[in-house]
Design brief:
The complex is a heterotrimer of chains A (253), B (122) and C (149). With 253 residues, chain A is mainly α. In chain A, 67% of the residues lie in helices and 0% in strands. Chain A has a single domain, classed as Ferritin, CATH 1.20.1260. Chain C is extended. Classes of the chains: A mainly alpha (253), B alpha+beta (122), C mainly alpha (149).
């Protein structure tokens, strides 16, 4: 098995979860409806929990730093999240659409990983299923409510947010250094295959709720996250997220 | 730039320009929520949620009632679908406490048995 | 509560920086903590009816005393001090303390505290920004019904 390729896969999954978990926690206290405040906060906890579980695998199976140190002490270039998840929360429609597009990709990724030949990932995928399933359910219920059953304003806001975020979402599937190793070893179906599954589900869902996908969407403006190239938004996020830890990395909290 | 200790508050644009009244309360319908902690056990009423429809009611109910305890499932029922006696008619339940012959505690035969035993051995 | 106590202990028993942060916070929060339980029973305006209706189960002074009884030992145990040289338990088991400036208390509860304006601004901001969501979810055919229980 190509361990480097597996390590790269886990890092990007962990960093995606960590960064979007942190971003969505920014809705705490200012959500449009109390239950959404609670929902985003609790889903953030779930996502950060997933990141933690993945950092643990990196620590135990690959000798990387322990979870806390790993999450809080890397430099911007060492984070392998996609650029989509580091974008600011923006208006609620952006966060909701991001929640749908990203979590749908997560769900499909974990579904496929249940059959991974790399056991630690297969086991984690089975364990985290329920939580991710709910995240998708939550996103779809809200999208349905606002796009299909809402009013003119909500429909147009959701459509604009979709136009804006769909190209960013495509960059989730930026390929790693050695996709063929992962595919041949049975660890993972590969980003291309995942992208195809995701596109099928997203286009069917959007059609059902009366939304159209932007026509010539391409990810080229948003690639690079997997190689450590980020937008100007990641550095301030990291500064805030790591602030307490960085006061004294030797302290216990 | 706002000057809060909370960096998130500092990112809220036009914070201090928000003036005027909030909107009058727009009320959604209510749904009665029932919680089951283990498959096969009783489903217990735990409260209500306000929601614009049943799917949203289920989502809100999960957030409010299933975060901090073991849950195997939730039911939501629109409040307007629930049949119940009118509040003014709750007095029909009042006679029950006086029908003491329906209560097991009413039967105090222990005294009779003791008295009888004393009599026959006396 | 256990989680809060855990955090407190980790900071108090951690690095010098952590202990200093904690002591600083303790110094700042001491007076507001006393305020939290409300004015002394002699001055409390709403206690009587609230207690008759069992909304409030113990008087302000009782609650404050209970709090001090439980927490002062825990605080002192880890070497954190309280900024009040008059704070002590008398022979009747009642905690005595310096007057915590009740004028400040009344100012804060009447809207003139350090965070009131910000908090209200944030609430208004959130309400305004979220209005389109709530409006989109209004379902004119759904009527509000008084809850049943």
């Amino acid at each position: 098995m190509n361990k480097e390729a597996i390590k790269e896969l886990i890092y990007k999954m962990a960093d995606d979860a960590m960064i979007i978990g942190h971003r969505n926690s920014e809705w705490t206290g200012i959500g449009p409806v109390l239950e959404e405040d609670i929902a985003f906060s609790s889903m953030s906890q779930d996502k950060i929990g997933h990141a933690w579980a993945l950092y643990d695998v990196l620590h135990e199976q690959f000798g990387e730093k322990d979870a806390d140190k790993n999450a809080f002490s890397r430099s911007e270039k060492e984070y392998k999240n996609c650029q989509f998840v580091e974008m600011p929360i923006g208006e609620y429609e952006f966060s909701l659409v991001r929640h749908y597009l990203f979590d749908k990709a997560e769900w499909l990724r974990y579904e496929s990983l249940q059959h991974s030949s790399y056991l630690p990932l297969a086991q984690l995928a089975k364990k985290m299923r329920g939580e991710i399933k709910y995240h998708v359910m939550h996103a779809e219920t809200w999208m349905n409510q606002l796009a299909l059953h809402g009013n003119e304003e909500s429909k147009s806001r959701i459509q604009s947010a979709l136009n804006e975020s769909y190209p960013m979402a495509l960059a989730i599937f930026e390929e790693g250094a050695d996709e063929s190793a992962l595919i041949n070893d049975g660890v993972f179906i590969g980003e291309q295959a995942l992208l195809a599954l995701w596109k099928a589900e997203v286009s069917a869902f959007c059609a059902r709720i009366g939304l159209s996908l932007p026509e010539k969407a391409d990810a080229s403006n948003y690639l690079g996250g997997r190689k450590g190239y980020h937008t100007e938004h990641l550095a301030p996020l990291l500064a805030e997220m790591c602030e307490v830890y960085l006061l004294d990395p030797s302290a216990e909290w | 730039m706002n000057e809060s200790l909370d960096p998130r508050v500092n990112r809220l644009d036009d914070l201090h320009k928000v003036a005027g009244e909030g909107e009058a309360n727009t009320h959604w319908a209510t749904y009665e929520v029932f919680h089951q902690d283990k498959r096969g056990k009783q489903v217990v009423h735990v409260g209500i949620v306000h929601a614009p429809g049943p799917e949203m009611a289920l989502v809100f109910a999960k957030e409010q009632y299933a975060r901090r305890k073991f849950t195997s499932n939730l039911w939501v029922v629109k409040s307007s679908e629930v049949y119940t006696y009118a509040h003014e008619d709750e007095d029909i339940f009042e006679t029950v406490p006086e029908k003491t012959f329906r209560e097991p505690g009413f039967y105090k035969v222990r005294d009779r048995i003791e008295a009888y035993k004393n009599k026959i051995t006396g | 509560m256990k989680q809060g106590h855990d955090n407190f202990v980790y900071l108090a028993t951690g690095t010098k920086m952590q202990r200093e942060m904690l002591q600083d916070a303790m110094n700042r929060w001491y007076r507001p903590l006393l305020h939290f339980f409300g004015p002394s029973d002699r001055e409390s305006q709403h206690s009587q009816p609230l207690m008759r209706w069992k909304v409030k189960l113990a008087s302000n002074d009782d609650m404050r005393n209970q709090f001090l009884d439980q927490y002062v030992p825990k605080i002192l145990e880890v070497g954190i001090t309280l900024p009040d040289e008059n704070l002590k338990k008398n022979q009747d088991g009642i905690w005595e303390f310096s007057d915590p400036d009740w004028d400040e208390f009344y100012r804060v509860i009447n809207g003139d505290g350090p965070c009131n304006k910000e908090r209200l601004d944030v609430r208004r901001w959130a309400e305004l920004k979220g209005r389109w969501v709530r409006q989109a979810l209004m379902n004119p055919s759904d009527k509000y019904v008084t809850p049943l229980a």
